[in-house]
Predict the structure.
Amino acid sequence: MGIKEFLKTLRDGVAFTYSWLIICILAVSLINGRTTITVGFLLKLLILCIWGVLSFCLCFKTKMISRRGFIFSLTCFYILFIPAEIFMFYMMGIFQGNGSTALWTVFFTIIVLMYIISLIIDILIMKRKAVDYTEKLKAYKGGPEK
């Protein structure tokens, strides 16, 4: 991926994630009866979105890392993004106060479940599809390779 394509992907990703998170935060705020969202909170959210999209682009869009496979890219993404996510959640005050143990448990459970689901999808579905595609490609080329 060239630098122009990388920056375009970064721009589009930040715009999508930031707007989606703003909508989610507004919905949660309305449900909880919260009437204000501070500019500082929005700036921290923007920084989190930029870091997340940058991590995603580096892990999934660059040839050096994505060449090694999906699970390697996913693991690199988790290593890059989750510590920053935890730090930003703490700075935003999401995991402070009463019930923080329950929130942390839910947070880590979601991360572990998503990773396990990704492993299952990669092992059970994507590997099988790769074998099917390889066989179809060999058949298209005129039979098995010698």
